[in-house]
Amino acid sequence: MAYSRLEADALPNATPADSGDRVQRLMRWNADVVIQEDIYSLLLRDPRWTVAVRMLAVNMLAAAASDSALDGIFKDAGRYVAVMWAIHLHVSDSLTLPKLKAICTASGLLSPGRARALLSYLRYLDYIAVLPAGGPGEIARYVPTAALMAAWRSHLSAALNAARILEPAAGLIIDRLHDPAVLATFARILGEELLASTRGPDQSQNFYRVFLHRHAGTQIVWSLLAVDDEAFPPRKPIPLSIAATARRFRVSRIHVGRLLDEAEREGFLRRRDDGTVVFEEGVRSTIQFLYATQLVRLLSAAAKTIIEHPDLVACPAAAGSGVNPEPGAVSAGFTSEPVHA
């Protein structure tokens, strides 16, 4: 099944009736390092949350299908977070192998040994370049190429379009992602938010191991979660052809079969005789936690970016985002720290 990217205004309930306080509503999601339970409750109580999280899955599949290099990055969680942190290091400090190793270690998601291989992979994709050495023995520094920043901008726009279902003011960031300073701020904050989210419950770590750290496992999960259903994750049986899944994500049928076998052994899903799979009750809270966290982090990073760039509210692009800012919509006293992409 092919997926096309969805826009928030193409789905029901994308726009609340009263737009006067949209920016202030977005500020509710300005989360702490540890997301508080009331934030999760706020999200899960929102009837639009299932639409938003399904759109997130659909848009990530569409982004990968439209860009073979981005598809390679999306193939497992390790590559994805390494790229996010590489961009984060670039815009906040500098991207070097030791610094990427340190952040991989701190996350608990990646071994420091993968950092070198991931930098080599990004060089192979022409997504990063090596800066000329400043002197003998100087540690090599890397910079994202224009191709990587363009691909990442498109990917962030697709993700924010899903978040915009819940808070239309997130569209202010989409409208200005072409601005290097805004893109740098949002990427820096999102990297910090992701690093804060990497220590989940034990079962989350098992879910990462079975699905998200396997080649194409992230995309296989997205394809299951993108199924139209009133519940998230879907409760109804989901058709799944091993052969079609292998062709779509360019892996072997044996690889897909082994992934499903282990997921079944772990009690994550059940394979039925009719060729469908069903998520087991025991994994539902884990999936909700992981993907709710992604949406909260997107909304939180959007709120913090607007705080650092209050001109986002006043700029002409705000009209295209459905935001009608009121005087003082963004709290006074915050200053934007220059960030150079």
Strand line-up of the largest beta sheet: 1-3-2
Count all strands and give the number.
Answer: 6
Structural class label: mainly alpha
Mean pLDDT equals 84
Question: What is the succession of H and E elements?
Answer: HHHHHEHHEEHHHHHEHHEEHHH
> In percent, how helical is the residue content?
55-70%
Report on this structure.
With 341 residues, this protein is mainly alpha-helical. The protein has a domain at 19-66 and 148-323. The protein is 57% helix and 5% strand. A three-stranded antiparallel beta sheet has the order 1-3-2. It is globular and about 65 Å long.
List keywords for this structure.
single chain; 341 residues; mainly alpha; three-stranded antiparallel β-sheet
Task: Describe the structure in brief.
With 341 residues, the chain is mainly α. It has helices at 22-26, 37-45, 49-66, 68-73, 77-92, 97-107, 113-124, 146-163, 171-176, 180-196, 202-212, 217-225, 242-249, 253-265, 281-308, 311-314, 317-320; strands spanning 95-96, 128-130, 141-144, 238-239, 269-271, 276-279.
